[in-house]
Write a structure and sequence with these properties.
The complex is a heterodimer. By secondary structure, chain A is of the alpha/beta class. Chain A has 15 helices and 16 strands. In chain A, strands 6, 7, 8, 9, 10, 11, 15 and 16 form an 8-stranded mixed sheet that branches. Chain B is mainly α. Chain B has a domain at about 25-230.
């Protein structure tokens, strides 16, 4: 009896093994194999800054990208294939950003990169993309040269972020008008002492003086990035007695500067033009926005004043319980372009996607007219909403925005590119 | 170098007052942080590389206390006491175990705590930068002295730092506690042999040094935005101050902090692109001329 039951058990075991082997064999050559491939996710790598003093910028980028991907997957993905974001922390180090980008493609199976790095990291990732040939969309670098300089250009790299020169043209136009109205001829600046601060300030004054010939820049002060105490730059500004001050300080540095400048009375009787003020991170950190402050829009729910933008902002807040930032909308645009190219080419082939992206126009809540175009000539976005205006202490923080005119921006940008030797 | 602007400033009373007061402001907070650092080094013989994180913790605790009570005095006290208690925990459970160890081991423990505290701040208060805002009591127009501008809040801040400097001098030089602490610093074995609990003294000094960093963080909270990792920059300057003043010397920390404050302040007029260079050159020059620092004791 015992022998018989042992034989039966042995037979069942053999049957089970045979059955399993047959199932594995079938799946490797037959129908189930196709089903597995279809469900294989499309992996998009995303290096960004998730630790250190500017971690909130990386988190804002990640949130926006996650929103875009979830919407794409909820709509069925690419013929049932979902998209998976693989997000890595570069700690804000350019070498680490480049290393991570390489690892995401070589080891983690990512087929393309959404590069949410600041300029220093973006240039590193760009070179890795040149080397390995994967598709990359830079979503945070505002340094114009990244796409404007023909030496930098590669067919598989794009930028879905505002550009310094675009902001400078609209800012110069707006500030020039305000300066004329209020007779603000004596200007100073306080901007961070690194390439972004130096370049952005120079470009702003170039266009300010283009639009208003009476403006005189009497001096500039350059605090260090992440400087804690602004007493000495503030007293330097007080000594210079300017009528207006320009600044491209950003984030916590800008908040500290405003707090400290207020107790010195620096803003009394002066106009302050801070390009990075109108971002929720700054506006909510400062308890009360002082008077006489003008800013460019980084991200505001009311600019552009459309239902699509307000709905996107509400959805973001509902999901993450925090307000979106400048890096959020840029990453939302970046992932939208990427997903649209996947859909349009019905796959992830870098060459086909790159060809599709060049010149592509998408519907976007952040476009001046509800659309944003990836310009074919230099792979960078245009027609996104740029505005400047004076700020109020509560929503809508910029009730009367001066919207940038893209015809003017494009015309002056062409001249700028000629002067730089980027085009002939 | 803009020597003409510097000369113009030092010969103008308004500029002189503004820049000197600015130097005192910068120096005041630096003094509070550096004095804790130097006190811990002087008594315990260890370099607390996590001191900047204690400054950060003080600022965040003060922020929460201010939001709860709307009182800046309570917020300041909470920042100092909270960090003092945390430092006690840090010393008892971690630093105590590496007193005799290699400096690399001490560095490792401190660095681990820097990372842990940065992440803890991110989890508790969020990664976005935050600002306390100026308490209503200090929202007054700045005071004009001989044409120079001095904000009201900074007068308060300088006053607190000056009171702490005097209080510390009295505590260390004129009280029994001070005598015990100095004895433990010079010869802990002999102090222990005399029946004093040196372990407790070490813990107390570490907690007090930490509380000073917490106090500095709390005092800075209304004017400096807070974010994880904010303690790093002040730690570097505090090291410069302690090296200039002399490791272990509280009076040296005061002198060093004022020197750095004044270099920063007048440097912004005379050599705005080379302020940090001058700070480091000053430190190097003092190290060459007097390796123990301006007020440090020579060791053989």
């Amino acid at each position: 009896m015992q022998k018989r039951s042992q034989a039966l058990a042995s037979q069942q075991r053999r049957q089970l093994i045979k059955g399993s082997a047959a199932a594995v064999g079938l799946s490797s050559i037959g129908l189930p194999g196709i089903s597995l491939a279809q469900n294989n996710p499309i992996r998009i790598g995303m290096p960004t800054i998730l630790s250190g003093r500017v971690a909130m910028l990386g988190e804002a980028s990640r949130n926006a990208a996650i929103m875009g991907v979830e919407m794409f997957n909820a709509a069925g993905g690419l013929n049932g294939r979902p998209v998976e974001l693989i997000i890595r922390d570069s700690k804000g180090r350019p070498d680490e950003a480049a290393r991570i980008a390489r690892e995401l493609v070589n080891s983690d199976g990512c087929e393309m990169i959404l590069d949410a790095e600041a300029s220093s990291g973006a240039f590193g990732v760009h070179e890795v993309a040149r080397d390995l040939g994967f598709l990359v969309i830079h979503t945070c670098s505002e340094t114009s040269a990244l796409t404007a300089d023909p030496k930098m250009r590669i067919p598989n790299a794009f930028r879905a972020a505002r550009q310094g020169v675009h902001d400078a043209i609209v800012g110069g136009d707006y500030a020039g008008r305000v300066a004329k109205e209020q007779g603000l001829n004596r200007w100073m600046s306080v901007s961070p002492d690194y390439s972004y601060g130096l370049d952005t300030t120079a470009e702003f004054f170039e266009y300010l003086q283009y639009f208003n010939k009476d403006v005189e820049v009497v001096n500039s002060v350059w605090p260090k990035l992440f400087q804690a105490d602004y007493s000495e730059p503030i007293t330097r500004l007080l000594q210079g007695k300017p009528q207006a001050i320009y600044s491209c300080l950003w984030g916590g540095d800008l908040t500290s500067f405003i707090d400290q400048a207020s107790i010195y009375g620096l803003m009394n009787g002066r106009q302050f033009f801070g390009v990075n003020m109108a971002d929720y991170a700054v506006l909510t950190a400062i308890n009360s926005v002082p008077p006489n402050i003008h800013s460019g829009n980084r991200y505001l729910k009311s600019i552009p004043k459309t239902k699509a933008n307000a709905d996107w902002c509400d959805a973001y807040v509902a999901k993450f319980n925090t307000m979106p930032l400048n890096w959020s909308w840029q990453n939302a645009v970046g992932i939208d372009f990427m997903l649209q190219a996947i859909k349009q080419t019905n796959g992830t082939d870098t060459k086909k996607m790159s060809e599709a992206l060049a010149g592509m126009t998408i519907d976007s809540p952040f476009g001046t007219d509800g659309k944003i175009t990836m310009r074919e000539s230099d792979h960078t976005i245009i027609d996104y909403a740029i505005a400047w205006g004076d700020l109020k202490p509560q929503e809508p923080y910029m009730p009367n925005p001066y919207m940038g005119n893209w015809d003017t921006v494009l015309r002056l940008e062409q001249e700028w590119m000629k002067n730089k030797g980027y085009i002939s | 170098m803009d020597s003409e602007a510097l000369l113009e400033c030092v010969t103008s009373m308004s500029c002189l007052v503004t820049q000197t007061s600015t130097g005192l402001i910068v120096g005041s907070l630096l003094f509070l942080v550096a004095t804790g650092l130097t006190l811990i080094f002087g008594v315990l013989g260890i370099v607390n590389f996590a001191h900047g994180s204690l400054y950060m913790l003080g600022a965040y605790i003060a922020l929460s206390a201010f939001r709860l009570t709307d009182s800046f005095i309570i917020a300041t006290a909470a920042g100092a006491l909270g960090v003092g208690l945390f430092s006690l925990f840090f010393e008892r459970f971690f630093m105590r175990r590496v007193y005799g160890a290699d400096v690399l081991m001490q560095l490792l423990v401190c660095y681990a705590f820097i990372l842990i505290l940065d992440d803890a701040v991110k989890i508790i208060w969020g990664s976005e930068f935050q600002s306390m805002g100026m308490p209503a009591f200090f929202q007054e127009p700045p005071v004009f002295l001989a044409g120079g501008v001095v904000p009201v809040f900074y007068i308060y801040l300088i006053g607190i730092a000056a009171a702490m400097a005097v209080g510390l001098w009295v505590l260390l030089n004129k009280t029994k506690i001070g005598k015990i602490v100095r004895a433990a610093a010079v010869n802990p074995s002999m102090t222990s042999a005399l029946g004093l609990n040196t372990s407790l003294i070490f813990a107390g000094v570490f907690a007090f040094g930490g509380a000073l960093a917490g106090l500095a963080g709390a005092l800075a909270a209304p004017v400096r935005s807070m974010s994880p990792g904010m303690g790093f920059s002040i730690l570097i300057e505090s090291f410069i101050v302690t090296v200039i003043g002399g490791m272990g010397s509280v009076s040296g920390a005061l002198v060093g902090a004022l020197i750095i404050g004044l270099i920063r302040s007048f440097g912004s007029i005379g050599f705005p692109y080379f302020i940090e260079g001058v700070m480091f050159i000053t430190m190097a020059a003092i190290l060459v001329l007097k390796p123990s620092g301006l007020m440090g004791k020579e060791t053989r």
